[in-house]
Write a structure and sequence with these properties.
This protein is an all-alpha fold and 75 residues long. 72% of the residues lie in helices and 0% in strands.
């Protein structure tokens, strides 16, 4: 999973959601797709967390503090 870009993982996750919403597959296949979707969602979440941390570091390095100035870490 780690070889997928965020965009590739998100695209596949969207595809899985569409397939599951149709409801036209055997239960076992649906469960396998759901499991893949859970993995992809975790992968995307991890990549977003890493990007957020990187942005926070860049913001601190550029200003000496959080851009929001409240210490909350949100932009």
């Amino acid at each position: 999973m780690s070889g997928r870009s965020f965009e590739e993982a998100l695209r596949r996750l969207e595809e899985i959601v569409q397939l599951l919403e149709k409801g036209e597959m055997p239960l076992e296949e649906a469960l396998d797709l759901f499991a893949e979707g859970v993995e992809l969602a975790g992968h995307c979440h991890g990549m977003l967390d890493a990007a957020e941390q990187r942005l926070e570091v860049l913001a601190r390095n550029g200003t000496g503090r959080n851009r929001a100035g409240d210490g909350g870490g949100e932009f």
